[in-house]
Design a protein that fits this description.
The chain is mainly alpha-helical and 148 residues long. The chain is built from six helices and four strands.
Length: 148
């Protein structure tokens, strides 16, 4: 699996891009995100991502603004929502135990792998690098993103 296009459809999808440990904007991540969007790529999200993003937005913004921004993300043309199935949850529980990572991160990683997506766009490299076969684009890395 390589970071990049998914099954020739011209879209980069991953089920986690709002995995900010800090709340300040990450200029390198924003630049990478915009470069991918300019190339026509889209991003996958799931229930874990939406709920974690909403939680973090509520901590830094008022409730109404967090609500508006979360709904905007869910309905954005740049993001596609993928429900999490029972098989993914079963595998994620095993992955969390085996890799010693939080269950939310295991669900996100397993969902990405199950969907055959191109990788994960995150700043949580510490946990996701424990997952074999999961390509990572590091939001905080200032290195320029190579995209085809």
């Amino acid at each position: 699996m390589n970071c990049g296009q998914h099954e020739g459809d011209g879209r980069f999808k991953h089920p986690y891009f709002f995995k900010y440990r800090g709340y300040a904007g990450i200029p390198a991540g924003r630049e990478k995100l915009l470069a991918l969007i300019d190339k026509g790529y889209t991003f996958a999200v799931n229930a874990i991502i939406i709920s974690e993003m909403n939680y973090k937005l509520q901590k830094i913004l008022n409730g109404q603004e967090a609500h508006i921004r979360t709904k905007k993300l869910l309905h954005s043309r740049y993001f596609e929502y993928f429900p999490i199935g029972n098989d993914t949850m079963e595998s994620a529980i095993d992955l969390s135990y085996a890799s010693k990572i939080r269950i939310n991160d295991a669900v996100i990683a397993q969902h990405c792998l199950d969907l055959g997506l191109g990788g994960i766009f995150t700043d949580n490299v510490k946990d996701f690098k424990k997952i074999s076969g999961l390509p990572i684009i590091n939001l905080r890395d200032k290195e320029k993103l190579e995209i085809g």
